[in-house]
Design goal:
The chain has 244 residues and is α/β, with parallel strands linked by helices. It has eight helices and seven strands. Strand 2, helix 3 and strand 3 form a beta-alpha-beta unit.
Length: 244
């Protein structure tokens, strides 16, 4: 797992920056019903997406477990609390909506994702909506030569598999109510960038080298052509669930 406190300052620039954030925020807003007046952005990170969850009458609160990330969000003018998604300092049935963009795939410890979704179910009022990315890591498989190098080393059980997320949501009293996709603008990976990310541990949720060291896999990426030419941008998927 990355040290998100240490990564905070450089985080946005290495992950698509403003174009990706604007696409994500627009997709989330498209799944929030008109009656929603407040949304908690869970795992808000630097707040680059949170700050763009704007429409008339909508109040936004960020929550993140990383002090460094939360400080960046606060600098953007976002009200933010330091909190884990499995233990929110909020009353039951107190929220209209919760969003979690690029979060669930990181939560690889056993039972953390169902605990988080159960907590979301606890704080949502009836008719409240939970919007989350699913299958995030798979979105990066765009059929490129980089994907061919990484394919033998992909983790086999993503923490945000759609069927499992839907089952956890059902157990928390949430039923599916919509889906959306959006392009990860500026997220097309270069071979050089993929090698650097692998060495830095940024692929920790997705890649676990088998029968090879991290450096050996990075060297194979370094042997690909067009080292600084971005491959195709990924397409991310959002699922929405409503509280009964």
């Amino acid at each position: 797992m990355l040290d998100y406190d240490a990564e905070a300052e450089a985080y946005d620039a290495t992950r698509g920056g403003t174009p990706r954030a604007e696409a994500a925020a627009a997709a989330v807003l498209g799944l929030l019903p008109a009656h929603v007046r407040g949304v908690l952005d869970l795992g808000c990170g630097t707040g680059i997406v949170t700050a763009r969850l704007r429409r008339p009458g909508l109040r936004v609160l960020g929550a993140d477990a990383s002090y460094g990330m939360a400080a960046m969000a606060a600098r953007r003018g976002i009200p933010v609390v330091i909190a884990s998604g499995t233990g929110l300092p909020l009353r039951p049935r107190s929220l209209d909506a919760v969003s979690a963009v690029w979060l669930l795939h990181l939560l690889r410890e056993p039972a953390v994702v169902p605990r988080l979704i159960a907590e979301v179910g606890r704080v949502l009022r009836p008719g409240g909506v939970f919007v989350t990315t699913v299958d995030k890591d798979a979105a990066h498989d765009v059929g490129s030569d980089i994907d061919e190098v990484l394919a033998p080393h992909l983790t086999s059980a993503p923490a945000d598999a759609p069927a499992e997320v839907t089952a956890y949501a059902a157990a928390a009293g949430l039923r599916p109510c919509g889906e959306a996709v959006f392009t990860g603008r500026g997220q097309g990976v270069t071979p050089r960038g993929a090698a650097e990310a692998l060495r830095a541990g940024r692929y920790a949720s997705r890649v676990a080298p088998r029968s090879a060291t991290v450096e050996e896999v990075a060297s194979r990426l370094g042997a690909l052509p067009d080292q600084d030419v971005p491959r195709t941008d990924p397409t991310y998927r959002l699922s929405a669930f409503v509280r009964a």
